[in-house]
């Protein structure tokens, strides 16, 4: 681990309970929400005036992974038990529970308009406690979470970012590469803290454009979205 990170951890002196504090969802309502899965795996946001790009710097970042609404309900708990699944596939909540920077927004066509990300989740380099502090310094994979009302599907904007000294810019091909790395680490059987998960993947084309049009940082994408269905086994 980098020395600045170690020093930061010592100086802050926060306990593990704070580190694992979960974020609070922004602008979410469950008044009209269907039971998870009843609305299908997901629906195309564009049909109801939404977008498969979030809002970032006047452009957008691709929502290139979807956790199916037909996944086990605990996996779809975007402000709670989802984080155990994130741990199982190599990601954790942000270093010491802190986020620097303005939230990005997405319109998933579910009637709520543009809604803030629920959280940013970062690669933990095999250390679910302090690994995201290292990612914050040296860069790595990360994603933003946006739940879709009605299906409970989680739309993820996944990308690989550069180190902090280069302002966490997205790496060349960072959108497709980040998506592929997350999927590779998720498919099959994984477990964390006694919970076992099986994840299957399906490639969907036509939801995203191919190329650079509208894409933040002018980074080309291949237009593919991966739909993950996650099942918990007792």
Give the secondary structure arrangement, pairings included.
Layout: H1 3-12, H2 16-19, E1 65-67, H3 82-88, E2 91-93, E3 105-106, E4 115-116, E5 119-123, H4 131-138, E6 140-147, E7 154-161, H5 174-186, E8 188-192, E9 195-205, E10 224-233
Parallel strand pairs: 1-10
Antiparallel strand pairs: 1-7, 2-5, 3-4, 5-6, 6-7, 8-9, 9-10
Task: Kindly describe this structure.
Helices cover about 20% and strands about 25% of the residues. The protein is an alpha+beta fold. It has one domain. The strands form 2 sheets. An 8-stranded mixed β-sheet has the order 2-5-6-7-1-10-9-8, sandwiched between helices. It has a two-stranded antiparallel sheet with strand order 3-4. The longest helix has 13 residues, at about 175-185. The protein is globular, with a radius of gyration of 17 Å. The termini are far apart. It comes from Lentinula edodes. Keywords: Signal. This is Secreted protein.
Which class do the helix and strand fractions yield?
alpha+beta
Main sheet makeup: 8 strands, mixed
Backbone CA Rg = 17 Å
SSE run: HHEHEEEEHEEHEEE
What's the helical proportion of residues? 10-25%
Gross morphology: globular
Number of helices: 5
Mean pLDDT: 84
What distance separates the N and C termini? 35 Å
Unreliable runs: 1-33
- Count of structural domains: 1
The amount of beta strand, in percent, is: 15-25%
Biggest β-sheet: strands ordered side by side in the sheet: 2-5-6-7-1-10-9-8
Number of E-state strands: 10
Protein name: Secreted protein
Keywords: Signal
Signal peptide: 1-21
